[in-house]
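Q: I have 721 residues here and want to know how they pack in 3D. Can you give me a structure?
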Amino acid sequence: MMSGPARHAHTAALGGPAVPPRLGIDRILHPRSVAVFGASEDAGKFGGRIMHFLIRHRFDGDIYPINPNRASILERKAYASIADVPAAPDVAIVAVPVSRMRETVEGAAAAGVGCCVIITTGFAEADEAGLDLQAALVEVSARTGMRIVGPNCMGFIVPHHRMALCSSVVLNTDSLGDGSIGMISQSGALMVSEFDRARTAGIGLRYGVSVGNQSDLELCDFLEFMVDEPQTKAICLYIEGLLDGARFRRAAARCRQLGKPLIVLKTGRTAAGVVAAKSHTASLAGSWEVFEAICRDEGIVIARDPDDMMRTAHVLASFNGRRPGHRVGVLSSSGGGASIASDRVTEIGLELAPLTEATFDALGTMLLAPQARNPVDLGGRKVPADVEIAGTATATLFADPTVDIGVAFLMSMPFYQKRCLLIADAVRDCGKPVLIVCTPGAAADPARQALRERGFVVYEDFEQALRVLALVAEHDRMRQQPRTVPVRPADLPPPDKAGTLPGGAMGERAVKQLLAAYGVPVARETIVRTPEACADAAAAIGFPVVLKAVSPDIVHKSDAGAVRVGLADAAAVVEAARQMLATIAERQPGARVDGFSVQEQVRGEAEVIVGIRGDAQFGPVVMLGLGGIAVEILGDVALVPAPVAAADVGAMIARLRTAPLFHGARGRPPLDTDAISQAVERISWLAADFGARLVDLEVNPLIVKAAGAGVVAVDGRATLA
């Protein structure tokens, strides 16, 4: 049999070396053979633990220990180098020192290894030298076709394949478990920790994958595979940074199309690390807000805790498509628990199920009337204490047609374990997702163990159960919301207009001309050079007018004293222009003033801001909120990726805390939300047409009139790359 380079010497049809076919993700996660570099019998070493775990969990493929100092390891023939292995391994796992990594990877590629999983740290995450070394490994991959996972990763855990290709001590267990949840993590420690916690709780994983530095194979490679694999019922991701935002969106859209839940935990929620920018759009639409908008658009659930992520995936995988709604039924073993549940279920935005009279009557044969309502309190007994009602009451409550999802909130009570099991049996028979919460301390451990042995995931914290319920409800609401495919309005200018404009800052006049070309109403204006010329321009437009300084150096005109409104005659206009020059010189010395813009004064019921921010990961996103200084004070904006259909702008407005003001509040007329929607749609197509050239754009304010009266853009700025 060929060995070493001979196995790798494929030849292109026209002569010369050819890159061999790359190993697919399916084969990488289900290898027929594995080579372990640094293999050892010492379980205190990386290679030793990997060998022990492969054998202990009965991996049934070929195992090739690589160790030049041993003839055999754990009764497996050892090989001095990868070139000596009798057949090219599908996967090799490598934990050699950084100084030996390049030669090791070169040797693996030459031997025909399909994929190298590199555990070793000290690469791009460390310093410039490490970055250069990582680049060298990528070059080997690109040249030879051998895939690389990592470096700086923890490998894979594939329970159904009986493969623990990982060195973590959490694998020192008799069983890897099995399940239908795929987990992909940029943190190896988080992956193995969550694998262990999930297995302990009774949640089985189908895959646990650590991608590390994503030098070659990245998160989306494994995500795309799991999306299309029928046996994977839900997917969990821990993300620190995406390499390809568009690819991630496509995979998420595929998840949504197939009805497969995708739950994400991502770092970077706070403002730290977000680069400040001049416009409101850039500062308010930071990278986290953009990611959140993308997730909302694609139906991705965002969790804030890894356990919440995993438990939400478990509920969704177990009961996917079997929740008609999110009305909650609560069973409690105490009045205190029932009272807490009443408040907290409502506070997180869910509804307590209004039980039918038939259910109330049936529960009323066992419980006092106040305790027979939802939440149901088993402590309010009507029947004698020696009559066991726990199972019957549970079955009655969760069989009610108004109950979609439930919580059994079990605090201390007599015969705790017995009644927990009666309740659990009734829960299993109801066919609905019901989370079982056992709140006592060590006294409840026997009951928890008994419940887990029956296949139940036990919650020790009522708040966690509520968080999971809220995430399940959020998933369903997003997935059930109809999606409107944006259709380009027929009267827009050609999409290639973006290429004809020069780069740099665009002033108000240029932005308004661009908006007008896209069908957005703009205020009439005249540009003049001197204060005296302002009077004639104002008379031609008609009083009252608005006066603004024209300056490439002034971003926020009100701060610099560069805007005056309500000027009612020619003398007032001239005086305002002269004062404006003096104020600008005082507040913003050095700012260049090229002239004045005399504009019609547009009156309306509210000011709205519409902004665009070009995001490096996901492209342009649209921002909407109340405008003027309100956006600075409240920071209340909604974001969606561009383009957006006018029909979906109403959902953006609904997410605003100030949404009641759009629909009329305290006697104020409702705003023309249809006109807002049309303007936002057109501006979003402008953003889509300009693509990466549009760094940011801000229309602030867009004056909004009462319903049916329209909108007018009266100010704007933009930056083109």
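Q: Anything worth noting?
A: Residues 524-600 form a domain with the Dna Ligase; domain 1 fold (CATH 3.30.1490.20). The chain has five domains: 1-152, 155-320, 324-480, 524-600, 606-720.
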